[in-house]
Amino acid sequence: MIFIVGGAGYIGSHVNKLLSNEGYKTLILDNLSKGHEEFVKWGKFIKGDLKDKRLLARIFKEYDINAVMHFAALTDVRESIQDPGSYYKNNVKNTLNLLDAMRENVKKFIFSSTCAVYGNPLEIPITEDHPCNPISPYGRSKLMIENILEDYSRAYDFNYVSLRYFNAAGADPQTEIGEWHEPETHLIPIILDAAIGKRENVQIFGTDYPTPDGTCIRDYIHVMDLANAHYKALRLLEEDKSEIFNLGNGNGFSVKEIIETCKEITGEKIHTIESKKRPGDPPILIGSSKKAKRILRWRPEFADIKDIIETAWEWHQKLNRETI
Ligand code: UFG
Questions:
Q1: Is 258 in the pocket of ligand 1 (CB under 6 A)?
Q2: Which residues are catalytic?
Q3: Which terminus of the chain has a lower count of CB atoms within 10 Å, N or C?
Q4: Ligand 1 within 6 A of 218 CB?
Q5: Do 125 and 192 sit in the same domain of this protein?
Q6: Residues 137 and 265 in one domain
Q7: Residue 181, domain member (yes or no)
Q8: Residue range of the domain that includes 76
Q9: Which of 58, 118, 123, 125 is nearest to 291 (CA)?
Q10: Are residues 94 and 136 in the same domain?
Q11: What is the pLDDT along the chain (324 residues), one digit of tens a residue?
């Protein structure tokens, strides 16, 4: 059985779907602070929090868990700057609870890390050996866990794979699940909200970055491609190996380019306003995923940004038909 912590959230739920389709049994733990019970369509669900050490001890005693995947974290860079305490408690302290509870019983761990561990890149595309100098408490909280994993795995004899996601986007092509944050802070769903008339305009955070059109450039990677990398990482752990991988498409799109592509796909007018820079935003983040391609034999299936946005649009329309 695979224990998916945070499996009711955006990325965790897509991983749950993919693993379940591959025949794995899954157990989902989620406190539903960000996740949605409606997204747990596969596997067994326990509502609970990583703060609850007794619950964790009971879960590891009761269930035959072969591997742990950990998605449960706060992920908003700006919020982490305003309230670092919540980030260190949720993302670091709670992860320690999980690692301490599992280490006697489970020898395989997959961690949701982020390109935010790199900070402002010195070189593009970013490879895994690029120095890690995070510029936000969010990025630092994830890097702290990566460091802890290095020490823990050596001392307590388990293997781990840490996956540094670039910008997760898109949705399950069958539109059973997708991106649903409240409040929404991510660029693509915000633009799609404007396309369906749920918000009046899209703020462009910063227009004088050192990029061709002055707006930030990001590497968008489809959530099903991320899910597939977790499946491949599980197989790598069977070989008793620990590794860190970037997961991105290797190409970047500016905020303005994403808005234009969304206009094209939705056929809607999208009003924009130029706003101040958002703190903690590096100008360009593009990842090299050569290592994942080589070692995991992973290939993004949704390499075209249009395909990514199309799946996001399909889901976005469905979500808003059903919840508004
Ligand atoms: N943006 C806007 N307007 C908005 C929302 C976003 O201009 O209303 C811009 C942001 O400033 C950024 C880009 O669109 O330049 C993408 O923003 P998102 O919020 O969608 O995603 P982030 O780039 O902030 O987040 C990603 C990952 C995080 C990681 C972070 C590192 O999702 O896990 O990059 O900076 F921490």
A1: no
A2: 138
A3: C
A4: yes
A5: no
A6: no
A7: no
A8: 2-168+221-247
A9: 125
A10: yes
A11: 999 999 999 999 999 999 999 999 999 999 999 999 999 999 999 999 999 999 999 999 999 999 999 999 999 999 999 999 999 999 999 999 999 999 988 999 999 999 999 999 999 999 999 999 999 999 999 999 999 999 999 999 999 999 999 999 999 999 999 999 999 999 999 999 999 999 999 999 999 999 999 999 999 999 999 999 999 999 999 998 899 999 999 999 999 999 999 999 999 999 999 999 999 899 999 999 999 999 999 999 999 999 999 999 999 999 999 764
Structural domain count of the chain? 2
Tell whether 74 is covered by a domain: yes
Q: Name beta bridge partners: 275.
A: 205
Q: Apex CA 38: angle with CA 98 and CA 25, to 5°?
A: 55
Question: Residue 245 C-alpha to ligand 1 middle, in angstroms?
Answer: 20
Are 133 and 15 found together in one domain?
yes
Answer whether 316's CB lies under 8 Å from 178's CB.
Answer: yes
Atom of ligand 1 nearest to the CA of 135: 35
Is the shortest distance between the CB of 36 and ligand 1 below 6 Å?
Answer: no
Q: 127 and 231 in one domain?
A: yes
CATH number at residue 307: 3.90.25.10
* Cis upstream peptide for 121 (omega within 30°): no
Crossing angle for the helix pair 53-62 and 94-102, to the nearest 10 degrees: 30
Distance of alpha carbon 162 from alpha carbon 251, whole angstroms: 21
**For residue 111, what is the domain's CATH number?**
3.40.50.720
Structure ipTM: 0.96
Q: Are residues 237 and 272 in the same domain?
A: no
* Beta carbon of 199 within 6 Å of any ligand 1 atom: no
In a domain, residue 128? The reply is yes
